Amino acid sequence: MSGSPPRPAHEEGEAPSPVRRMSLYPPPRSTRHTARRRKGWVVASVAAGAAVVVAGGTAAALVLGPGPDQDPGPGASVPDTFAGTWEGKMIQENEAGEHVTDWDARVRLETGAERGSSEWFTLNCRGSLTLQEREGGRLVFDYVETYDPDDRCVDSSTLTLSEGGAEETLEARWEATSHDGTTMISTGTLS
Predict the structure, then answer these.
(1) Which letter, b or e, does each residue of 139-154 get, where b requires 16 or more Cβ atoms within 10 Å of its Cβ?
(2) Alpha-carbon span 163 to 149, nearest angstrom
(3) Which single residue of 43, 65, 143, 148 has CA 20 to 30 Å from 114?
(4) Residues 6+ apart with CB under 8 A from 103
């Protein structure tokens, strides 16, 4: 019997093996619960999409700001009532309230802008204005000098503009510290 092939084990009285072939790949997955899994993914996707829409709306509201009927609050932008070119005479006093000088001022502001420009043309100085605070009928700007060939003006100061008592006027208050450390205050009406 040396030349004959070996006989299968089940032919010799043993029970047949349920394993017929070995595979390196897992058996096919059941499709019995596929619909339930798919439904779970759909619900999760819809919830994620809703979260993105809500977050996007919130971000847009923060970027675009409040509607036209709402006051945008401090530091927002120049309202229509302050927009334009305003000119007038400023009266400057020192800390003791003593008169120092008078000078002519011009302020330019645009609706919706956060910046403007100013010119103290009697003193031959110009600067940029950056809105720092908006509260009701009052705007507060930081002034930074951009032109001063005669070195007569201060490098930085604060300019506060308020709605004037007369129609189409603004009350201006300019505060600065001079080169020698003296606090200087100038006030005037711009129209």
Answers:
(1) bbbbbebeebeeeebb
(2) 32
(3) 148
(4) 89, 90, 92, 120, 122, 123, 186
CB contact set of 62 (below 8 Å; sequence gap of 6+):
none
Q: For residue 183, what are its two tokens?
A: 């606090």
Q: Which pair of structure tokens corresponds to residue 3? A: 């030349």
Domains of the chain: 80-172+182-190 (2.40.128)
**How far is it, in rounded angstroms, from Cα 103 to Cα 50?**
60
> What SS3 state is found at 90?
strand
Residue 65 scores a pLDDT above 60: no
Across the chain, how many H-helices and E-strands are there? 1, 8
pLDDT for the residue 75: 47
pLDDT digits (tens, 9 = 90+) for 148-177: 999 888 889 999 999 998 889 999 999 998
